[in-house]
Amino acid sequence: MEGGFPMTDMPKRDITGKCEGECRDRVKEGEEERQAEMNADSFEGPESFPRAHWAKSRNVPPGAFGGHV
Question: Of 10, 41, 47, 51, which is most buried by a Cβ count within 10 Å?
Answer without folding.
Answer: 10
